[in-house]
Design a protein that fits this description.
Elements lengths: L15 H8 L7 H13 L9 H8 L3 H10 L6 E4 L5 H9 L3 E6 L5 E5 L6 H8 L9 E4 L8 H12 L2 E9 L2 E7 L11 E5 L6 H13 L2 E4 L7 E7 L4 E11 L23
Parallel strand pairs: 3-4, 4-7, 7-8
Antiparallel strand pairs: 1-10, 2-3, 5-6, 5-10, 9-10
Helix pairs in contact: 1-2, 3-4, 6-7, 7-8
Length: about 280
């Protein structure tokens, strides 16, 4: 049985024109935020299957946050509301300067171990600095087991540090078709020797896409456990000053790799070992 807000006599989906008439003027959000929300709802229909303008209007009137909550409730579990943080200046300074690398060290066998926790603003510089002098070394172990994803563009630039420019490296797929995306030119690729990438159940989103790209185009070996399996991007839509709606957007496809259900490594880690 469809959810209660979808049990209506009309089968009309929430069109842009009807929705603007429904929620404007919004009590909390500005007109531009309302338009962004409604465009996103219409663009990502599967997230709100069965919801109608009439039912949503009866339930929420002009309350945009209420409408967003119903969109989440009627979704497939991927759509979510997120409270927006209002950090002080100290927090802003910490976020903008926070390191992307958790640690990096030289192992006894000559391999370099680098823990890449996030895709921060200076991630390219940090990786180049960490691997200076590694040319001709015995290889690099890139640990992505605590990488939960992040900025898609920065992730592509990190991939480019190891692969160089790769046209049509991956594809973004939505209702309008299949769009190729290149790994960009980030300067001379790093020559760090054999590349091993550690992955696990917490490796997610951009983190697991990076692992797939490095295996496909840099010859990396993946070691560890199956990744989370988040093979899509999120569209962020502002609701008001305190809330934003995260909608599933394009699905990501890396040729020769399977992200849905989790990326499978080439081998597990040794029993009781945290590194190869």
């Amino acid at each position: 049985m469809p959810p209660w807000w979808a049990q209506s006599g009309t089968a009309t989906r929430l069109s842009a024109a009807a929705a603007v008439a429904l929620v404007a003027p919004a009590a909390v959000a500005g007109e531009s935020a309302v338009a962004r929300l409604l465009e996103a709802v219409e663009a990502h229909g599967p997230a709100t299957e069965g919801m109608t303008a009439e039912a949503l209007g009866r339930a929420c009137g002009t309350d945009l946050l209420c409408a967003a909550r119903l969109i989440v409730a009627g979704g497939d579990g991927r759509t979510r509301l997120e409270r927006r943080a209002h950090p002080d200046t100290d927090t802003i300074r910490w976020v903008t300067t926070r390191a992307s690398l958790g640690s990096h060290a030289q192992a006894e066998d000559g391999q370099k171990l680098v823990v890449l926790e996030r895709f921060g603003r200076k991630v390219e510089w940090e990786l180049r600095a960490a691997l200076t002098g590694q040319e001709g070394g015995k290889g690099l172990v890139l640990d992505l087991r605590t990488n939960h994803g992040g900025d898609f563009g920065r992730m592509l630039r990190v991939a480019g540090l190891f692969t160089g420019t790769v046209p049509d490296a991956l594809y973004l797929i939505d209702g309008s078709g299949r769009r190729p995306v290149a790994i960009p030119n980030t300067g001379a690729p790093l020559a760090a020797g054999a590349l091993t990438v550690l992955v696990g159940s917490e490796t997610a989103s951009s983190g697991e896409i990076l692992a797939a790209l490095l295996r496909r185009y840099a010859g990396a070996e993946l070691a560890g456990q199956r990744t989370l399996g988040k093979d899509y991007l999120l569209r962020i839509v502002a609701i008001d000053q305190d809330w934003r709606l995260l909608l599933p957007a394009e699905r990501v496809e890396v040729p020769g790799e399977t992200l849905a259900g989790g990326l499978l490594p080439d081998r597990p880690l040794p029993a009781g070992g945290s590194t190869p």
